[in-house]
Design a protein that fits this description.
Helix content is 24%, strand content 45%. The chain is of the alpha+beta class. It has a seven-stranded mixed beta sheet with strand order 2-1-7-6-5-3-4. α1 packs antiparallel against α2.
């Protein structure tokens, strides 16, 4: 379809998504960035968060756990440490990970930065529809 852009989400272990979409909203380290067909080329750092995209008028979401995005006129390529689409999230597992991370945050012998990142990842997963 005319005026669509290809969205590709890649992690070290799999290709999560590879389809034509109407638009993408990226969660960058500088804030949100909307991308549509014929966007100026740019490379941007991604933060932990949820990206939104629209396919045939239907709004969808996916998680991104840092990484970067390369935007060209007709393609958005996301390279991220981890990503999950709607419906792939195991809510019980994410809730358990959240509780473990919160427990480590209160432990004086824990690596607080690692626990903070684990907590952030769990909260993002729980926010996804």
């Amino acid at each position: 379809m005319a005026n669509q852009i290809k969205l590709e989400i890649i992690t070290p272990t799999r290709q999560v998504f590879n389809e034509m979409v109407d638009m993408v909203v990226l969660k960058t380290t500088e804030g949100e960035m909307g991308v549509m067909y014929d966007h100026e080329p740019v490379v941007t750092l991604l933060s932990y968060g949820i990206i939104r995209y629209k396919v045939g008028g239907e709004k969808k979401e996916a998680t991104t756990m840092s990484g970067f995005a390369e935007v060209t006129k007709d393609k958005v390529t996301i390279l991220t440490d981890a990503s999950e689409l709607e419906g792939e999230i195991n809510k019980e597992r994410a809730e358990s990970a959240k509780e473990r991370a919160e427990g480590h945050m209160g432990d004086a012998n824990s690596d607080h930065r690692r626990a903070e990142i684990a907590l952030q990842k769990a909260l993002i997963r729980l926010r996804l529809k």
